[in-house]
Amino acid sequence: MAHHPHESHGDQHAPGPGHAPGPQHGHGHGHGHDTDIDWAEMAPHLEAQAELYMPLYERALSWLGKEVTEPGLIVDVGSGPGVVSCLFAETFSGARVTAVDGSAPLLERARQRADRLGYGDRFDTLAGELPDVLAELDYPADLLWAGRSLHHLGDQRAALASFAERLAPGGTLAIMEGGLPTRFLPRDLGFGRPGLEARLDALQEEWFARMRADLPGSVEETEDWAALLGAAGLKHARTRSFLLDLPAPASERARAYIAASLSRLRDVFGDRLDADDRAVLDRLLDPQDEAGVHRRADVFVLAAHTVHTAVKPVR
To answer: Distances from the Cα of 267 to the Cαs of 15, 89, 116, 187, 293, in angstroms?
Structure first.
């Protein structure tokens, strides 16, 4: 699974930060045409994205912690390389955490991270196709988290119903879907036509629609997440968005992520951009160009991701 050329679970949708495989996902290898995603190959980028977005995830988990007190089992659905899974283990020190993903190589990285950080004694992994593999969980979850991974499943309504079935009574389902497109650049770069990122956004939305259509069992769905959570039998739907604001001048780590994201967009969409926009991207990606993202003083990372939660009724 995955969100994007821009990316996130950072996946957002995927090929980028906005969409792209967002760290975290329940994946196999791709969908079709130019929407294939090799999750194992993307692991370093997924990790870098999730680590850069850590302030956003910390705020989201702090908010969840006010709603979900002392969970016994937390399940991260579409965990990818486990950056956020390990943050759950850190935030909820009494919980067991199970990272679930379709990619065994990503789960191995998650396991290694958990061991390195000292959470290995209460950290499990489960590999298999989502959502069916969730039937292999030994216990119902007190908190089930799907961070930008649900949109990689063809039938999102059915997937949410499966997620809800795996919750303990009183348990919370939290999905991170939607938000705002990520921004790295000023609207007017001083060369080329202003508004490059808006044009890339449009290409990413088209890519995302194709990615969704190429998924096995794809079903079009109105993205009214509160209504979909209700249809899964859950109550007390809530929504909150969380901001990542890394202002200019960007750190070297942020610049590396920006360059990697724009490079991926250039690779995926280069033939759909006009010659002027391709030339602008080439300048932005040139490490020796003073106007490129490696050197210019005005690049930043600004993103907003939205979390939707609901609770399984206690019968």
So the answer is: 9, 36, 34, 22, 17
Which ranges in the chain belong to alpha helices (H)? 39-52, 54-67, 83-91, 104-117, 156-165, 196-214, 225-231, 252-269, 275-284
Query: How far is the first Cα of the chain from the last one, in angstroms, to the nearest whole number?
Result: 33
Instruction: Give 290's DSSP letter.
Output: T
Packing angle of the helix pair 252-269, 275-284 (nearest 10 deg): 150
Q: Is the dihedral of CA 181, 185, 186, 189 positive or negative?
A: negative
- Alpha-carbon dihedral 204, 128, 225, 208, rounded to 10 degrees: 10
Indicate the pTM of the whole model. Answer: 0.89
pLDDT by residue, tens only, the chain of 315 residues? 333 333 333 344 445 544 443 333 333 334 444 556 677 788 888 899 999 999 999 999 999 999 999 999 999 999 999 999 999 999 999 999 999 999 999 999 999 999 999 999 999 999 999 999 999 999 999 999 999 999 999 999 999 999 999 999 999 999 999 999 999 999 999 999 999 999 999 999 999 999 999 999 999 999 999 999 999 999 999 999 999 999 999 999 999 999 999 999 999 998 999 999 999 999 999 999 999 999 999 999 999 999 999 999 997
Among residues 263, 232, 215, 276, the alpha carbon closest in space to that of 25 is found at 215
CA atoms of 299 and 173, how far apart (whole Å): 35
The 10 Å Cβ neighbour count of residue 297 is 8
Q: Which residues have CB under 8 Å from 298's CB, separation 6+? A: 185, 186, 248, 249
Taking every pair of C-alpha atoms in the chain, what is the biggest distance, in angstroms?
64
Write the CB contacts of 5 (distance below 8 Å, at least 6 apart in sequence): 14, 15, 16, 17, 19, 20, 200, 204, 207, 261, 264, 265, 267, 268, 269
